[in-house]
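**Archive record**
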Amino acid sequence: MTGEVGTALWNIGLFKAEDPVEFFETLNSALEHCENDLLLSLYQEKGFLAVSNRRPTFLDVPKQDQPSLSNDVIYSSPRRQELQQVATTAFREQKPIPHTRWQGYQQPLQLLLQTFSTVSDKPEDFWYRAVPFFERRKFASGSILYRREEVADGFFLLESGILKAEYMLPQLGKFSELIVEGTTCGELPFFSGTKRTSTTRAERDCVTWMLNRSRWEELQRSQADIAQELLRISLKLTSERMDSITK
């Protein structure tokens, strides 16, 4: 940072190494960074509370313990402490999902039920028929699931990890979003048969369940009611995602 303002900020120690302050070219870039940082803190706080509470009141996906943050990391600076407090508050205010509701189901049925519980009223036996059409796929941190402008060949459910989708849209410019476990990825281009609108990579090691193009075509032929429900859900999820981006 240069200029009179930048020099003054340097002189008062705002950019000291022990508590670095990040700066960006535009306000939108700064706000996007803050949102992503808060989301990461929320995800990490979820794991921290899951380990510390022996009787959780929500459904964890996956079942294995989540990595927790050490006190040194959490409270190393006022900024980190503030992030931790925000994540803790947001996490505890989330509407809890009964821990035992789908505990006995194997993946991907458990993930289907959890992911679609707020957007579909279909019962367990309905989604059980969709299970054979999804394939388990792992992605190491840094791996690219797909690139912008590619033909969409898969719809993903994220069982564990974090994905990062980077967009370049004429009306919004360049921005990114983090996609966490228990959510979907790539639904609109896949179901609409259009090209990808983002480049999406694994921010952390990920386990996903993928519905590919050939299995989708088979699903449409053999389980038309499930295909219709997935189309309806994808439109609703896309609408909610765009609202969160543009509002």
